[in-house]
Amino acid sequence: MKRIFFLFAIIICMLWGLSSCKTDGDTRMSVAVSLPPQASLLREITGDSIEIVTLMQADANPEAFEVTVGGMREVNDAAVYMKAGNLPFEQTLTERIGQSNPELRFVDVSDGIELIYGTHAHGNHTHEVADPHTWTSVSNLKVIAANMLAAVSDVDPARKDYYTANYNRLVARLDSLDAAISSRLDSIGTRSFLIWHPSLSYFARDYGLEQIAVGQDNKEMTPGQLRDTHRHAADKGVKVMFIQQNFDARQAATLADELGISIVQINPLDDDYLKQFNIIADALAR
After folding, report:
1. What does the pLDDT average to over 68-88?
2. Residues 47-67: what's their mean pLDDT?
3. Which domains does the chain have, with CATH numbers?
């Protein structure tokens, strides 16, 4: 009889995707985040002391993403939802969950970051929209990590010292990474790069680089825009174009071929943010 009940519980979990339905006795606090890089950063602070729920996968498009019913349930069951801050789906999610679960704590981990405007558009409001890719900057990651530390220490004060020690080690690693990237990019001849979707605005600002976007909002450029971009990239001596793996960038690939420059694939949603920063820095330093 117990075995039948156990199997029945598993089936219910599979059908409904309820994060609160656990058969392994896991009683850890649950914290929801929007993106894999957030999850990786939070895990470095908390270790295995909390359960981290990630809404998006690394192969998703964050600006066209819609949360599933199962994802909404997982956020609703969490103690805290740490949103990246400026992604379109987050506003809708927080409004819906906030109405059904007013006790859920929402934390904007981009709080304190100087946002960049004018790189993205929602409808005709390009200059009013903040660039959402705040996590693609090492200096921004330190701000995000500080916001995460404050949030988990508040809801789990018994482990505050543990979280703080991990956070301090994380900041030291990020400082070393920042210094290494700065050293590699200090002497590069060309400080401009092409990119299909403008996801490296904050990285470019950190290191005095120019990001030249080929596409925006998944739309191809007009022939006139393409000519202007070709001329601008040639004048700047651009040597590399970055393309995200989850975007259709055929027009960008054609432009790169015409310019005779290399194409480097990146994934800003990869949970291994160290790997991605090294890919970007290596490509620019060649």
Report:
1. 91
2. 88
3. 20-180 (3.40.50.1980), 187-285 (3.40.50.1980)
- The number of C-alpha atoms within 13 Å of 192 and in the hemisphere containing its C-beta is 14
| Inter-residue contact 272 to 216 (CB < 8 Å) | no
DSSP 81: E
Mean pLDDT of 113-137: 80
CA dihedral over 56, 58, 206, 249, signed as positive or negative: negative
Average pLDDT on 30-56 reads 97
- Reply yes or no on whether the pLDDT at 276 is more than 50: yes
How does 235-252 read in b/e, with b if 16+ C-beta sit within 10 Å?
A: eeebbbbbbbebeebeeb
What pLDDT does residue 63 have?
Answer: 67
- Lookup: tokens for 153: 């220490």
**What is the mean predicted confidence (pLDDT) over 148-161?**
97
Judged against a pLDDT cut of 90, whether residue 21 lies above it is answered with: no
Dihedral, CA of residue 240, residue 245, residue 251 and residue 253, to nearest 10: 40
Write the burial class of residue 23 (CB in 10 Å: 0-12 exposed, 13-18 middle, 19+ buried): exposed
CA distance 254 to 106: 43
Question: What distance in Å separates the CA atoms of residue 190 and residue 266, rounded to the nearest whole number?
Answer: 19
Give the CA count within 13 Å in the CB-facing half-sphere of 64. Answer: 9
According to the 3-state scheme, what is the secondary structure of 33-76?
A: ECCHHHHHHHHHHHCCCCEEEECCCCCCCCCCCCCCHHHHHHHH
DSSP-based three-state secondary structure for 241? strand
